[in-house]
Amino acid sequence: MIGRIAGRIEYKAMDHVLIDVRGVGYVVYCSDRVMASLPGVGEAVALFTDLLVREDLLQLFGFPTLVEKEWHRLLMSVQGVGAKASLAILGTLGPDGVSRAIALGDWNSVKAAKGIGPKTAQRVVNELKDKAPAVMAMGTSEPTAAPVLPEDDAVIEPAAPAPKAAPKPKPNQSAQAEALSALGNLGYAPGEAAGAVAQAAGENPEADTSALIRAALKLLAPKS
């Protein structure tokens, strides 16, 4: 499985880009939105990729973030949604827009993508609504940079007493922070998001991030 490609752009077409990786060229298909965001020919680029394997075809699809890649994989798990339709949805809404539409049951936004009819849009929302919070939570944590070692690592200082480790935050505190971040990405005001997450956490203190997001969204949903 090819999960990530980093190299130099050799050429850009309407729906794909050729990336040279140490002399080997990889054709990577991207959504319109991603294509527009890529740098120019001759410049460096890195994309997360998903490999589609068929009897007579191998195709790579590229995404700037792991969240977008995961949405692509989930969208294609829905009956009637292939790679082309998935890219159309992501190209129209972006990963945050897809998260918002599915979490709120807004199939009309999904239907706005080229080639997506109302039945397919409704199927996407219905089949993925329980999986949306887990994908949304993926975007709440940033990768940690590797520590920079000192240049002169040959000098060994006398060992000092190890400082006492700071108490780890309770798992629920971390889950609440991630849930707040996810709701903020969906456009909710900090106040209303914090209130919903606090209420959800109070009702279920052991809830993880995904469960908190689901519960908060239910609390924030318009009352009919």
From TrEMBL:
<comment type="similarity">
    <text>Belongs to the RuvA family.</text>
</comment>
<dbReference type="GO" id="GO:0048476">
    <property type="term" value="C:Holliday junction resolvase complex"/>
</dbReference>
<dbReference type="Pfam" id="PF01330">
    <property type="entry name" value="RuvA_N"/>
</dbReference>
<feature type="domain" description="Helix-hairpin-helix DNA-binding motif class 1">
    <location>
        <begin position="108"/>
        <end position="127"/>
    </location>
</feature>
<dbReference type="GO" id="GO:0009379">
    <property type="term" value="C:Holliday junction helicase complex"/>
</dbReference>
<keyword id="KW-0234">DNA repair</keyword>
<dbReference type="GO" id="GO:0006310">
    <property type="term" value="P:DNA recombination"/>
</dbReference>
<dbReference type="GO" id="GO:0005524">
    <property type="term" value="F:ATP binding"/>
</dbReference>
<keyword id="KW-0227">DNA damage</keyword>
<comment type="subunit">
    <text>Homotetramer. Forms an RuvA(8)-RuvB(12)-Holliday junction (HJ) complex. HJ DNA is sandwiched between 2 RuvA tetramers; dsDNA enters through RuvA and exits via RuvB. An RuvB hexamer assembles on each DNA strand where it exits the tetramer. Each RuvB hexamer is contacted by two RuvA subunits (via domain III) on 2 adjacent RuvB subunits; this complex drives branch migration. In the full resolvosome a probable DNA-RuvA(4)-RuvB(12)-RuvC(2) complex forms which resolves the HJ.</text>
</comment>
<keyword id="KW-0067">ATP-binding</keyword>
<keyword id="KW-0238">DNA-binding</keyword>
<dbReference type="Pfam" id="PF07499">
    <property type="entry name" value="RuvA_C"/>
</dbReference>
<dbReference type="InterPro" id="IPR010994">
    <property type="entry name" value="RuvA_2-like"/>
</dbReference>
<feature type="region of interest" description="Domain I">
    <location>
        <begin position="1"/>
        <end position="64"/>
    </location>
</feature>
<dbReference type="GO" id="GO:0005737">
    <property type="term" value="C:cytoplasm"/>
</dbReference>
<dbReference type="Pfam" id="PF14520">
    <property type="entry name" value="HHH_5"/>
</dbReference>
<dbReference type="GO" id="GO:0000400">
    <property type="term" value="F:four-way junction DNA binding"/>
</dbReference>
<keyword id="KW-0547">Nucleotide-binding</keyword>
<comment type="function">
    <text>The RuvA-RuvB-RuvC complex processes Holliday junction (HJ) DNA during genetic recombination and DNA repair, while the RuvA-RuvB complex plays an important role in the rescue of blocked DNA replication forks via replication fork reversal (RFR). RuvA specifically binds to HJ cruciform DNA, conferring on it an open structure. The RuvB hexamer acts as an ATP-dependent pump, pulling dsDNA into and through the RuvAB complex. HJ branch migration allows RuvC to scan DNA until it finds its consensus sequence, where it cleaves and resolves the cruciform DNA.</text>
</comment>
<feature type="region of interest" description="Domain III">
    <location>
        <begin position="173"/>
        <end position="224"/>
    </location>
</feature>
<protein>
    <recommendedName>
        <fullName>Holliday junction branch migration complex subunit RuvA</fullName>
    </recommendedName>
</protein>
<keyword id="KW-0233">DNA recombination</keyword>
<dbReference type="InterPro" id="IPR011114">
    <property type="entry name" value="RuvA_C"/>
</dbReference>
<dbReference type="InterPro" id="IPR000085">
    <property type="entry name" value="RuvA"/>
</dbReference>
<feature type="domain" description="Helix-hairpin-helix DNA-binding motif class 1">
    <location>
        <begin position="73"/>
        <end position="92"/>
    </location>
</feature>
<keyword id="KW-0347">Helicase</keyword>
<dbReference type="InterPro" id="IPR003583">
    <property type="entry name" value="Hlx-hairpin-Hlx_DNA-bd_motif"/>
</dbReference>
<dbReference type="InterPro" id="IPR036267">
    <property type="entry name" value="RuvA_C_sf"/>
</dbReference>
<dbReference type="GO" id="GO:0009378">
    <property type="term" value="F:four-way junction helicase activity"/>
</dbReference>
<dbReference type="GO" id="GO:0006281">
    <property type="term" value="P:DNA repair"/>
</dbReference>
<keyword id="KW-0963">Cytoplasm</keyword>
<dbReference type="InterPro" id="IPR012340">
    <property type="entry name" value="NA-bd_OB-fold"/>
</dbReference>
<keyword id="KW-0378">Hydrolase</keyword>
<dbReference type="InterPro" id="IPR013849">
    <property type="entry name" value="DNA_helicase_Holl-junc_RuvA_I"/>
</dbReference>
